[in-house]
Specification:
Chain lengths: 300, 300
């Protein structure tokens, strides 16, 4: 049974590996690190890259917080209010905003929670292209499907559906991007041991660079116009809307007085809102928008 | 006793008056109008100005919606669930984002609600300068105080405090701007008749142009640097954070499936997020930030 120390160490070394891979791909900017401590116990390593050759703004955060379990977490975990129990929450969370409109935004999160006998894993990885390239969307989903299928035949279909439901901007009737996988409260049961759940979460974390970097390399040399750039800014506005209105991690962080700069590193470097922007009928922008208005099956 | 028709007509003609005043001040752009209807009854006139000589993006919205009172509004008004009762909600709401970093953002809202015997007025007006000029902050508050004092000696102190509490970005420990006045559920009681409440709300609405236009005229010809512009974009990021995370009107609109483009016209045309931006020690940006970190008494 993997100890919490082992899990925490995995997330910490995953942060190192991912930051090194992204720095190498960028070739210009490097991550700046901020260490922070939580007064009640634990802390984190916020790492931010800015103004890179390709990554305009991105954060890869590791955190591990512990101490007496706060009331709202007890409630969530079904722990009686009068029980005093320690908790641990550790994980890695990242968002990358590229400067190039044809390079997609990416988000990943892998995390572990325990309090007493209760434990679970959660996380996911999803892609938000400013322009949807169907071939690339398929590549991304097939990649995730392969990672999932090694661990359970149900994982990909179940977690793809969960991502489609979660990464949805209700007031726009738009998906945030092309989705990916999302999962929460993966604990032990008749079918899965803790080792097996952890092995899956590890595989998801380790699949990040191979899922994302090909999409960076495919697109970074493409030329683009000022119109492409403007569309990118509008899509980033939608990204900000999702994160500030719906994202549970963001809400959770803000409500629990988390470190605002670490939580909001997910926000885009620059975003635009234009009243009632409607793309031209036969434009790339319009076809992207139509793809975002439906739930698509990308893996086939 | 002012009829709902009279109140609705006042808000509608106030929209005309304010749009005309803002167009005249801008001198270049004009408002574009979108009429919309609510399937259950009523609708609105959304008016948006974009890319003006001074107003980069702004909306002045009139709406009047009615029909059977929705459940959540019954709850809010304390009306029994099984009672079928018609409601009316009408008002004017505006947000203006100037292109000039020394011209402040302004927001105003005046509204009326009734269902059966229950009625109330709500609203407010508040200023968000990118750079705080203490003299202008005092001018703005003194102006509002004068409007309030004619109607009740308690209005300004009470509603100023309410605005300070409401327009607060908790996760940043910052006020959104320099505040103003905010009030809600002003109904009839021993001290105030409906005529008197309406007279106050009318005075607030009619004070808008004289409160805001001097601040536009004072600053529009000032020269500014690229640094000033960047700071403006960062402050607009904060504005977007407030509106998407805390603003009740925005939440209410999004949750009730309102017209997203009308609700989110309050968002800035362009906004920026930079990780952990800290202004230089003796800069104008730093003194503005320090003023936003405290609740100030501006009127004296």
């Amino acid at each position: 049974m993997p100890d919490k120390k082992v899990i925490e160490d995995f997330f910490r070394s995953l942060q190192d590996k991912i930051c090194a891979g992204l720095e190498k791909a960028d070739g210009k900017a490097t991550f700046k690190e901020d260490l922070w401590e939580r007064p009640e116990g634990g802390g984190g390593r916020t790492r931010v890259i800015q103004d890179g050759a390709i990554f305009e703004k991105g954060g890869v955060n590791f955190s591990s917080v512990h101490g007496p379990c706060p009331e709202f977490l007890k409630q969530e975990a079904g722990i009686p209010v009068n029980e005093n129990i320690p908790f641990l929450a550790t994980g890695l969370s990242l968002v990358i905003h590229p400067n190039h409109p044809f390079v997609p935004i990416i988000h990943m999160n892998v995390r572990y929670f325990e309090a007493g006998n209760i434990w679970w894993f959660g996380g996911g990885i999803d892609l938000t292209p400013h322009y949807i390239d169907v071939g690339e969307a398929k590549f991304f989903h097939q990649h995730l499907k392969k990672v999932c299928d090694t661990h359970s035949a149900n994982y990909y279909p179940d977690f793809k559906k969960w991502a489609d439901e979660y990464f949805f901007i209700k007031h726009r009737n738009e998906t945030r991007g092309i989705g990916g996988i999302f999962f929460d409260r993966l604990s032990g049961n008749d079918m899965f041991t803790k080792e097996q759940r952890f092995a899956f979460v590890k595989a998801v974390g380790e699949s990040f660079l191979t899922a994302y970097l090909p999409l960076v390399e495919n697109n970074r040399a493409k030329s683009f116009t000022e119109d492409n750039k403007q569309w990118q800014l509008l899509r980033r506005g939608r990204y900000a809307e999702f994160n500030l209105v719906y994202d549970r991690g963001t809400k959770f962080g803000l409500v629990t007085n988390g470190r605002a700069e670490s939580i909001l590193m997910s926000l885009p470097p620059l975003a635009k809102w234009e009243y009632n922007h409607i793309p031209l009928p036969n434009s790339l922008e319009n076809s992207t928008l139509r793809l975002l208005n439906t739930i698509n099956t990308w893996e086939v």
